What we know:
The complex is a heterodimer.
Chain A: H1 5-8, H2 29-53, E1 74-81, E2 86-93, E3 101-105, H3 108-119, H4 125-134, H5 139-142
Antiparallel strand pairs in A: 1-2, 2-3
Chain B: H1 8-11, E1 40-42, H2 52-56, E2 62-66, E3 79-84, H3 93-97, E4 103-105, E5 120-121, E6 133-134, E7 149-150, H4 177-180, H5 193-200, H6 208-212, H7 219-228, H8 231-239, H9 245-251, H10 255-259, H11 271-281, H12 285-289, E8 300-304, H13 308-319, E9 323-327, H14 336-339, H15 348-360, E10 364-366, H16 377-383, E11 386-389, E12 395-396, E13 408-409, H17 410-417, E14 428-432, H18 436-452, E15 459-464, H19 475-483, E16 487-490, E17 492-500, E18 503-516, E19 522-535, E20 538-541, E21 545-546, H20 554-557, E22 581-583, H21 594-614
Parallel strand pairs in B: 6-7, 8-9, 8-11, 9-10, 11-22, 13-20, 14-15, 14-20, 15-16
Antiparallel strand pairs in B: 1-4, 2-3, 3-5, 12-21, 17-18, 18-19
Helix pairs in contact in B: 5-7, 5-11, 7-8, 7-11, 8-11, 9-11, 13-21, 17-18
Amino acid sequence: MKFDIRKVEPYAAYDKVPWEVPTRQEGDAYSRIWIVRDEMIESVHMIFKLLEAMPEGEVYNRIPNPFKWNIPAGETYVRCESSRGELGLYLVSDGGDKPYRVHFRTPSYPHGLTILEKALEGASIADVGNTMISLYVVAPEIDR
Amino acid sequence: MGKPSILSPFKAIRFLFKKPLTLRYPFEPKEPAPRYRGFHLNDWDKCTGCGNCADICPNEAITMIEVPGIEPKPGEKNERPQLDYGRCCFCGLCVDICPPGSLRLSRDYFHIHFDTDTFVFVPKDDKKDEETFLPPEDYSILKASLTHRRRDYEGFSSDLDYALFDPERVPMPEVEAEERKGSFVEMVRGYTAQEARAEAARCLECELCEEACPAHLKISDYVKAIGRGDDQEALRTIFEDNPLPAICGRICMKHCEEVCSLGLRGEPVAIRWLKRYAADAVADYGGALATPPGDSTGKKVAVIGAGASGLAAAYYLRLKGHAVTVFDAMPAGGGMLRMGPPRYRLPQDAIDKDVDYIASLGVKFRFNTTVGEDVPFEDLLKQYDAVYIGVGLQSSRTARIDNEDKAVMALDFLRQARTAPGPKVGREVIVIGGGNVAMDVARTCVRLQQMQHAKQKTVTKTVSLESWEEMPATAEEIEEAKEEGIQFNPSWGPKAIVVKGKRVKGLDCRRVKAVFDEEGRFSPTFYEDQTTFLEGDMVIEAIGQGYDLSFIPDKLRDSVAFTERRKVKVDENGMTSIERVFAGGDIVNLNMDAVTAIADARRAAEGIDAMLSGA
């Protein structure tokens, strides 16, 4: 399925450099691993294109004074594409300089619990490890 | 993999002759990358103990501990950071925010010990701790630990490019030299609300400024309030320690900005301009402050002198509920603040705003009343429960040169210059003196010359005993005076005013050998054979002021104690050696500026209140 947050809601310079979302037609673990490799190669191509097209200017962007950086009160959910899937940040602020509530929505949580359950129907016990790795589930990320 | 055969194990022999890829640690130590983040190094000479590293650490790994062996300079603390390496995550935020740039990270990262207490460590660097930081020939990777480190200068050190503080100040709009020297328009224009908020956002809240301020204003609190946009709260915080914000916001000597952390590698936070912004932004002090005077105690206090210290003493005593009467020989309040700083530095409406607010609290003013002539001093002692003397330094010092009667004294000159049209000035004026008052006089002369002798060639010169390095005027005053075209003649001592008939022709000067003697006392010596003649048709002396305590009757004056520097001696409550008589301001302290006078007045007000409520 062709779904990549860098295409759906582009951030940084992802909409300025031409690239494609790699997909594979077979639905098994082997093709998932090949997709990871394809994404790596696509990233390297993107880096070369970006190096050519990089504009001149300051390298460091000055951030506000950390002791006085107050986020306006409210809540927000932002997301980006991590190597495993959609990484989202849910933030609630009360207007002070420290956040009130923070929660990271990690890709390993739905991949590892719900998708894994569906994918393992009819598989043998020896396949569990392989399927989990191919879905790129990382246990510490589930626990976030 | 190749086909399996009986000979395949022997194919591996070729690796005997190849260079191994593994690093034979520890015999071949791995060089960490440049700017690798390891254990801390701290330059104790540069470190000011501000504590910003401790404030920003996300793991609270840094604690500031007091080191008794360090003698802090004013504005620094004798604390130094202590690191807990069990908590440190080596993020480097402490290095990014360190304002003096003393904290760095080295490239060492080994420490193996069974005792966890050794992981808590006070970082120094090789300047202070030669046993820990060894030169490369003595360092051994096998013994590497927190107490066996190498001298490493390529670790992560702070750099202004990505420092977390902003080293540049929001520039203050000022009137250009060519335009301002033609009139008495106020030179500094003041911040807008947006500029003030941006400037207040630079503050790191380390509070070194609060200790350096003579009145100990809560600077980081009011700067924070301005940053939030809450100007009234800022004004309330200022008024707790300083009832003259519009005046001090223009002329304060800014001891705070001298020690601001950001000033170590950038420009200090513009604390004085932010105080001026808070005073100007709130149009009506009474509405914002809502400080009702306390319940009436039935006690009466007399304050002699309506200058900075007298006004502050009256304010604090009135808030405590006493009935205060302020006596002053001038027709309006302000004292030396009214007579001294010229209108381009301190316009009249700023003085009026502060004085009128204090009067609105119920303080009674008796102007045009000279204590000693119109009211005898003993009457004050009889009719009032306490007396506060804040008369300041009224009389000008003289240079004791020939024909001195033809010279004008600075205090008289400046007092006349406060009201338009001002005194008459010649076309070539010579000002004797090198301090801030001399700069005020000279810059006032330039303006009056432009107004009175427009389109003619005019010049103002200063002559001072001090050389460029010794000149006591502040650097910005000298700079602004130079911009306005004033000529300086440092290291010349005036000898005599040359007079022809009734007109002044100029000033004879001789070269100064030294101003201070070996003990640092003022004792100028000259080369009598090196002389010069400065042309001028007017001479103004601005070399210092002294106090005039003649209003105190003789028998009481004998019992007034003086310090070795010939100032009035007061105890820790501000009381002089005469019972029920307190003093403060220029006659007591050595700083001789407005904010120290206010601090003295506050101390004396607390002392008077304690005495009146206890007695």
